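User: Please run a holo structure prediction.
Assistant: Happy to. Please share the sequence and the ligand.
User: Here you go; the ligand is arginine.
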Amino acid sequence: MSYKHQVAEKIASALTSLGVDSFTMENVYAMLETPPNPAMGDIAFPCFQLAKALRKAPPMIAAELAGQIIGSPLKEAKAVGPYVNFFLDQEDVAIQVIGTILAQGSQYGDSNQGKGRKVPIDLSSPNIAKPFSMGHLRSTVIGNAIANIMEKQGYEPVRINHLGDWGTQFGKLIVAYRLWGDEAKVKAEPIKELLSLYVRFHEEVENDPTLEDQGREWFKKLEDGDAEAEHLWTWFREESLKEFMKIYDLMNVSFDSTNGEAFYNDKMDRVVTLLEEKGLLTESDGAMVVNLDEYNMPPCLIKKSDGATLYATRDLAAALFRHESYDFAKALYVVGNEQRLHFQQLYKVLEKMGYSWSADMHHIPFGMMLKDGKKMSTRKGKVVLLEEVLAQAIADVQKVIEEKNPSLANKEEVSRQVGVGAVIFHDLKNYRLNDINFSWEEMLTFEGETGPYVQYTHARACSLLRKGNYQPSSAASLTPGSLDGKEAWAVITLLNGFPEVIDRAAANFDPSQIGKYVIDLAQSFNKFYANVRILAEEEGIKASRLQLVAAVVCVLKEGLRLMGLAAPEEM
Ligand code: ARG
């Protein structure tokens, strides 16, 4: 239990003995404030809300409470006007916090809120035969971090790569390949080649509008199981997936399922039948739609006039499938903000179908990746290949390591961890809905608010432990006076706050909470390191301070892991 919770518990039980039992520990906890300056105390409890229950003026209540509350982790409780101000016994807190972290290790901050319930998370989900875009990178990075965070909260995340492997565009691609394609070229550079076939289709259609019809026909053939269509589609999918796997391998991301849109091909009839039975389908210009007028939304398209299904139809089938397969606590969709309406429509259709579990589905939207103020796009030739971005980041880090630490063991692996970490961190330190300005300088510096900075701080702390010959222990034993400076206290309060940061990150599906936290912790640790002697101290003090360093190493590593970054011990 954090020291703040301990104080809240003391206040709650003092209130009970004063005859007020309507305030639980959690109520009190939520009322706690931080005094405007540390000289006034570490925690403040305002008594205004108690005036009614106790029929007394708040300052009198504060005085009474202050007289009753004492004991670990408190040094003193003082009434100041309507507030009770509490002074913590910092040494006591230090022992508790560091002791808990050393004992729990990477499990520090774990909770069982999720009770093992499943949370399918739809993430990454790139489109076959198209380049892996910045948006897909954002979805991958944010979704993976949310999965880690949910897992830490006791849920069982199910990472689903809902590949965009179905739709009319595959009809067009088949037409283009049959007309202008070259097998060897596709094999050599699948994504590049398939993309250029697709682009060519759109150029040629200007002169030959019948191409559109051919595309539609071939997609229909594909949906009806035509052998040639299916053969080509399978091949495009496999080649594309091979390329995507390179990126996932670099990023160390894996999936529990790669059931993409095509997987729902044989599960859509059921959706259409259900919609029909429930009287929700209406005809509009020959197409079948679910009307959403009452929510001021455009209708949700279920079937085109030629009978072809749509993106939304497949998402409806996927929602039913996930509900049946996972009996989920929540289902998340980490998809760009531009699809907001699509998910609103999806949830409304499910609600109209009578599925109350649609309330447990959440679209987790995110903003765009900008370069020089413009969207980093993969269209119209201006392709930013993600693999190239990652390769560049890794190469840049490798250069720095070659310069600063040429004798480092496994340079290649560390460069990958730091280069990829830089890209991930650059994304996750910002609140996901904010657009991000893609900047090499900002991403790769070892000094700013970056992944490399946090990783480097972690590695420095590890080297401190090595040099100090730190002996791992699972309990804190601190020499009095060894951690009494303000620099140590700043680190200890941050360490104490880690579990709450995870709670907030999980509740808001917001990995940037962890990103900001690890930056704060790294900065605060570096201040401690710069101002407090460690290795040159006598044994007892040195050992105590190394225990704080070990706790920092543990929490930085775990924070980075949650975000999807490795924490090399040397760099
Ligand atoms: N493939 C889609 C795209 O790139 C994203 C799919 C998101 N997931 C979903 N269930 N709709 O835009």
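The CA atoms of residues 270 and 384 lie 40 Å apart.
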